[in-house]
Every structure is written in C-alpha cells, then in structure tokens.
Design brief:
452 residues; alpha+beta; 3 domains; four-stranded antiparallel beta sheet; 16 helices
Length: 452
C-alpha cells in the first residue's frame, strides 16, 4: 500500500514539473475556485443539518462534535464553518460571496454577530477581499469598545507543553519585582475613570507562584520577543497593544515617566510611547539618510544636504555604487517606505521589511544613483530582478533590464486605516491634505520628497 502511494506521489511530482508557469498558475487558480465552491456547498449543507436532529440521533451531543469526529475537521475548521453556516441561514448572500472568494470563513465568523437585515449588504460589501486585521477594524467600528487601562503582570515560567502566555484577556495589574524578570505590558490609553500612568505603578504583592528571574525566564522572554505584539482594535483609531518586555525595558519606561512628569503630570503611557517612537524615528532617519554635514561654525554637519555629499565626492561619481543620502531620502518618501516592485498584473508588492535601494538600470551597465534610477525593493524582489537582469547576459546600451511590470510606479491609492494598526499601516482613510496617516508620519520623520 505504501509503495503504491509513493509511486502515485512520484508520478504527480513529475507531471507537475512538466507544466509551464502559465499552466501551473491556471491549474492552481482552478483548484482554488473548486475549493471555494466546495466550501460554500459544505457550509450550506451544515446550515441545513443544523436544523435537524441527525447528529443527535447519531449519538453526538453537538454539531461541533459531529464535524470533528465524522467529517474529520479540525477544531478551527469546524468552528468557522458552523458559525458561517448559522450566519448564512440568516443572510443567504454569504454563500455566493464564499463561493466567489470575496469573503472568507473568518470574515463571516467575525462579522456574523454584528450583521442585521438593515446593514448586512453594506457591511459585507465593505469586507470584500479584506484581511482579518482589516475585518477587525470593521468590527471595531460596528461595535466600539472602551479603552482599557495600562497594566503590567509578571510572566510566569513556561513549562514544557504549556500554552504560551499572551491571551487577549486584560493582564492582571501586578508590579513586578526588581529581579529583572519579563512582564506582559498592555500600553493603551487609560480607561475613563481609571488612573492614568498605571503601566508600572500598580500596587500589590506578586501573585502566588510568581517567580523571580530564573534561567527559564530569559528563554521565555526571548521566545515572546520573537513573536509579534498582539494588537486588537477596540474602536475607530483606538487599539489594545500587548507585548512582553524585560525588566530593564520596564525600568526605562518608569524612568521616562518620572522624568516627564513636568510635561505629562498624568504620566500617560500612550503619550510617553508616542514621544519615544517619534524620537526613535527622528534618530533613525538621521542615521539612515545622512542628516549631518559640516558647517563653518560647528564643524559638524546638520540637515539634508546634497552639496555636503558632493563635497565628499559621493554624488555623481559614475564609478561608485554609493547612493547619496539625499537620493535615499527622496526615494524613500516617493515610494512611501515600501517595496515598489509591480508585477505583471499591476499589483504592487508593498513590503516594508528588509528594504534595499535598487538600481532600475543595473549599476553594472552604467545605471546612475539618481532618484529616477533608484527604487525601493524588498530583499526578495531585489534578488529576483538581479537574477532576471543578468541571467541572459549583459544588458545592451540603452536597454532596460528584463522585468515584470513597471517597478517604479507607485499606485495612486494607498491602504491605511490609522496611525498604528496590527498589520502596520493598513485602510484607506485620507485626511484633508489628501494623504494617508502613513504618508504624513513618513514625511514628518524623513522630509518632503525631492524630484531630481
């Protein structure tokens, strides 16, 4: 039996390798469409089964247990499909949206409790093709929740096989000792009536079983720092932000709060965090884009200066790969701090992590380090374009390297929902100036784009 299965798998792999790129993509799209239709049919059948006593007569106490044991669905699969089935009984249009791939099971589960006969069409339309984080933003607008008070609690030592700390329930405010152990922090605005600045000042002894710094605590802290912080939308433009920090970081936060008492008597932790991030972004922009130049009075460099870079012989040097700081700054703002690679279907990558400055016309064939010829790329797309450009040999004079789409085109609309979200800067809320919060913060910290 095993040999037969292995032979079938080998035959499948060989047949797939013979497919061209277009054939492989076409098959994938066809399979995905069939899976969506099958999911919609499964949800419709579950909706009908839920109205009958079939699973009870079969000896199962709930539809969930029936799905787990008879249909062999995982817990998450069963839960999502049952919730979607019950919501689709109220609003059958959901089945069509599921089959078309315009909404997902998670979307239906999150929105279901907030749908009414009056709003369901509008809400479902707003959730088309949205990510989970974006759907959570919609839920926060439909059912706003109050801010929660900032708090701190000690992270217990994680035992083998135990669940990691970091649930969405508000942490118990416990003041950790000075032993340096980790702490789970939820820096949000103070709730109405709650004392502001309670991030590190909650009184009370450690809970029973709370441990001091131990060998396992350090490893636990590292494990938590590797995970992304948990962000939950509470209401429009208000978020709960939860992460794990070390004792040293907590001490710095306390010290910053004490030193800012004259400017922030309430000790508002959100204001402290905002100030800290503003200072960090200013410092990063100065270092990343070379914000210093020598002056006759101070002997040091200040501000953005193309002339200072020219004086160092690093602008306009055809034999140098160096990208001048003014060019970096202009490109970073023009591309909005995102990968500007655009694929064959017009989709922009938009990745913000591990960005690199890419020569549209390769440096090896005379590409200049100018604003026109430099564009932001994520590491993967920068490497991809290098492979595409040079796999077929040197590029002829005046010829653009082979690539897909128009890599330097920036779409006219960006997605951003607020100044800080779980997925970064995601929604499409533009202010009076016509810019998104992402663009405004970017230009405040880096400076205006310069077209050269």
């Amino acid at each position: 039996m095993l040999e037969t299965t292995r032979g079938t798998q080998d035959h499948l792999r060989l047949s797939l390798r013979r497919l061209s790129d277009d054939e492989l993509v076409a098959r994938l799209k066809g399979l995905a469409a069939r899976e969506r239709r099958a999911t919609a049919l499964l949800v419709a059948h579950l909706a009908e089964l839920d109205t009958r006593d079939v699973y009870l007569r079969a000896g199962y106490s709930s539809l969930f247990t029936y799905c787990r044991e008879v249909l062999a669905l995982s817990e998450d699969e069963a839960y999502n499909r049952i919730e979607a089935a019950r919501t689709s009984r109220r609003f059958p249009v959901i089945l069509d949206l599921l089959a078309a791939g315009e909404v997902r099971l998670t979307t239906v589960r999150l929105l279901g409790p907030h749908l009414t006969p009056e709003n369901h069409l509008q809400v479902l339309e707003s959730a088309r093709a949205k990510s989970k984080a974006e759907v959570q933003e919609i839920v926060a607008r439909l059912s706003p929740r109050a801010d929660i008070p900032a708090s701190v609690r000690r992270v217990p030592e994680r035992r083998p096989g135990s669940r990691p700390v970091g649930s969405l329930e508000p942490p118990i405010p416990i003041a950790p000792s000075s032993a340096g152990g980790g702490a789970v922090v939820s820096p949000t605005s103070a709730q109405a009536g709650a004392p502001a600045g309670s991030l590190a000042g909650a009184a009370g002894p450690p809970s029973e079983g709370a441990s001091d710094a131990r060998p396992g605590a350090a490893a636990l802290g590292v494990a938590h720092r590797r995970r992304s912080a948990e962000v939950t939308p509470l209401s429009p433009d208000r978020y709960r932000y939860q992460l794990t920090i070390g004792g040293s970081t907590l001490d710095k936060l306390r010290l910053a709060r004490d030193m800012l008492r004259h400017a922030l008597p309430s000790g508002d932790d959100e204001a402290i965090l905002d100030r800290a991030l503003t200072a960090l972004l200013t410092d990063l922009a100065r270092k990343k884009f070379g914000a210093e130049r020598k002056t006759a009075s101070s002997g040091r460099e200040t501000g953005w200066s193309r002339q200072g870079a020219v004086g160092r012989g690093r602008v306009g040097a055809e034999d140098s790969r160096h990208v001048p700081a003014p060019v970096k700054r202009a490109v970073w703002v023009r591309d909005l701090g995102r990968c500007a690679f655009v694929g064959t279907d017009g989709r922009r990558c938009g990745e913000r992590a591990f960005l690199e400055f890419h020569h549209v016309r390769p440096y090896a064939v005379g590409g200049e380090a100018s604003v026109k010829n430099i564009a932001l790329r994520c590491r993967r797309h920068n490497g991809y374009e290098a492979r595409v450009s040079f796999a077929r040999g040197p590029v002829e004079e005046g010829e653009q390297p082979a690539r897909t789409g128009n890599p330097t085109r920036v779409p006219g609309t960006m997605t951003a929902t607020s100044r800080a979200t779980a997925s970064g800067w995601g929604g499409s809320s533009r202010g009076r100036s016509g810019t998104t919060p992402w663009e405004r913060v970017l230009r405040e910290q880096v400076g205006p784009a310069e077209a050269r």
